[in-house]
Amino acid sequence: MKMQFDAVIIGGGASGLMCAVAAKLKNSKLNIAIIEKNDRVGKKLLSTGNGRCNLTNKNVAADKYKGTFDGLADVLKRYDTDKLLSYFKNLGLLTFCDSEGRYYPVSKQASSVLDVLRFNAERLGVTILCKQNIHSISRQNGFTVKTADGVITADKLVICCGSKASPKLGGSASASDYLKNLGHTALPFSPALCPIKVDAGVIKSLKGLRATATVTLSRNSKEIKAESGEVQFADGALSGICVFNLSLYDEKGDKISLDLADFISEKELYTHLLNNKMLFSDLTAENIFTGILQKRLAQAVIKTSKIELNKNISDLTENELNALVKTAKNMTFTVTGNAGFEQAQCALGGVKGNEIDGKTMQSRRVNNLYICGEAIDVCGECGGYNLHFAFASGIIAGESL
Fold it and tell me: Quick one: which of 122, 148, 164, 311 has the most CB atoms within 10 Å?
């Protein structure tokens, strides 16, 4: 097989599909191909938003992202939330916004987003080549892509084949490898938007439990970031969306504290425990948080406060009650690292951001080379921010071809 195109897009995910559609809408005469290693395009897209595809957020802003990409503001200014939603509407997709500001297709199915992109790509005449294992990419009078099936050449090349996150869905470091060979600087990938591993402590006794809390990440006693939401206690780790967002910023040795009673002040909690002491005076200490915390969580708080579970509630001292309050409002763990790429929704790392022009997504090092989505060192928080960037950067690259 030997094929020639005006532009070849490596990666048939969110940014790659959008890039192809945008390119053909801007210039229908362009001969565009997508090269995808999986047996179908958009495999990872189908898993986003728990299968519902949270495609953007009403609060999209640069401070929701971390990384080295200095062109981020240009991308978000050119395609903000309203403009991206309008673009999707013109492609045939209707959306709705939930109470948290997250946008989903009205069908509540990620397949609707993929189908809109795929059907438009096919309608516009984009060539989609699946199950293509790339052996090499080189610059030879344009770009030459060698696959197991033959040689594909193009005047322009777009790299948008993602990061190492979610390897079961096709995540790998291939984008960085290709771009390093073409002269770019690639920062090592690290898992993000994933569970955070913490020191043992009482975490084992809480495995499988869920609790609403305010989670605070701190370093050297200085708060880095705080999030509120549902925390899931996993095997040696903390999970949940609020924890995932903190995983963008944490470092080994940081502290994570949980306010398990963020609905009440320390003073009010102390008064409530004092009242429980009178109400349940003939019971053991493990019942002191009755009506406040789930029993297994309460037991962990009591143990962490170094109080025997079988101690009589009536014998609890003022200092012990204060200790219980402090622990419930500030149960602290030490960060030992992030979970691996298998559990990561996204990854930090990729092409160094200052090597890409945010107004065109074109490489500042290699003419006619464009880079989008997760291949760039930029990662957003949970809530549709990463898909927004994937789609927006894909449109800009496509319109620049």
Answer: 164
